[in-house]
Automatic annotation (TrEMBL):
GO terms for molecular function: catalytic activity. The lineage of its organism: Bacteria, Pseudomonadati, Pseudomonadota, Betaproteobacteria, Burkholderiales. Gene3D superfamilies: 3.10.450.50, 3.30.70.270, PAS domain (3.30.450.20). Residues 328-475 form the GGDEF domain. Residues 165-236 form the PAS domain. This is Diguanylate cyclase. Residues 244-296 form the PAC domain. Pfam families: GGDEF, PAS_4, SnoaL_3.
Amino acid sequence: MQQDRQRKIRELFDEYIEMYAARDERLTERFSHNFSGYAGSGAALIQSRDEWIKITRRDFSQVPGRIRIEMLDLSLQELCDDVVMATAFFHIHLPSGGHLLSREVARLVLVFRLEAGEWMIVHSGISVPYHSAQADEIYPLQSLQEENSTLQALVDERTEALQESQAHYRLLMEDARDVLWRADPRLNIIYISPADERLRGFRADEVVGRHVFDMFTDEGIALVKGLLKHKALTGDPSEKDEFLTFEVEHRCKDGRLIWGEVTSKLDLDAQGKIIGYHGITREITERKALEEQVRQLAFYDPLTHLANRRLLVEHLDQAMSASKRSHRRGALVFLDLDNFKTLNDTHGHAVGDLLLVDVAKRLRACVREADTVARFGGDEFVVLLSELGTQADEAAAQTAAVAEKIRVHLAEPYLLQAATVDPQATAIEHRCTASIGVALFDGHEKSRGDVVDAADAAMYKAKEDGRNRIGFAPCPVAAA
Ligand SMILES: Nc1nc2c(ncn2[C@@H]2O[C@H](COP(=O)(O)OP(=O)(O)OP(=O)(O)O)[C@@H](O)[C@H]2O)c(=O)[nH]1
């Protein structure tokens, strides 16, 4: 019997809740004539059924749509045979978008009493903890709902804008030709954009987790280490947010090397501690090739690829300054081919060119990598020897040995194969010597010009003395 009653009350309660949620006018029929209750947050006690009906209608008109009641708990308490108290805890979801009216739990207490064989509601108390009801206010659902939908519209608008900007950003990151990357404080890559795969062929998962240096050549690693060390030693702490830009060769998956210009910056936390690095790498292989071409045109002889007069002069200035500091002497060796004109006149300019190219090769083979071999113009060549002995005779002896080696090598026969359509054409054998003039320097000379003039004069003297010989300028060289 008790169970039946409880089931009945539960059904009535569910029905009440359903009608309340559906904003169903018939709900009012359930109230007893001897009704009392608390409206809104429980602030105002309603003494009559009619007043409660009025209030409920106002509440319903505020929010016409169906609301959703999310029941969390319902308990029934039998106060006596014909009085049962039902207490429920629940969340109220607003009609638009199912948003919660309040994050806190609402409580509804309904007291049912058997009146003439029917269970009627004699008391109702509701507590919805959004705020206390004002004097003439029941559930300020409408204003909350409006507020909520305004906020929701704003959230939707912002979300859309954010998604759009994220999509743009992603597009930029993914479509950009430049590689964007981030690294942790130990320089291990933690993010790399897809441009790297297009550029170097490595998938992002093959790069993430690897050290930044894995991308570079050994020379590149040395360069970057040097830069970082220099920055750490000399860097002003206030310059921590400055960009560091450098050019470095990068390894590709297929073994190619490409040039990249890296612009990187530190990531700092609020205390200024380094928490990582980020940057952009731009491929500059073409630009480097162009720069190299320009350098070649500006500083190298196009026929022999030896240094030209301009580069030789630069190197001579450097060698003279170094000599002054280190006290190690240097020498300028001037050469002019003997009777070169005859070859040109007999076999043509093209064959003459072949000889000049061959001479250049032989000269290079006679000296160390650090020495400069230049073509001064026509059939004139210059060799700059540096880091010789500190004593004049020692330096003179070293230079004489190199000059003699050059003289002997250049005097060996040349086989000049001119480019011709005739497959039978045989190579031209030619003999050619050079007259050589040497001037030693120790950096204390009045000018670079004095050294050049002295070597030139010594070469002319050698020519006058019968060619294929070496002449030494007086030491120290005489001022012009
Ligand atoms: N094939 C070729 N010849 C050049 C080039 N530049 C200059 N010459 C020629 O080199 C020759 C230089 O001649 P000289 O040094 O004056 O005379 P030489 O015949 O070498 O005689 P000596 O120097 O007195 O032994 C000239 O015939 C120039 O036309 C070049 O780029 N290619």
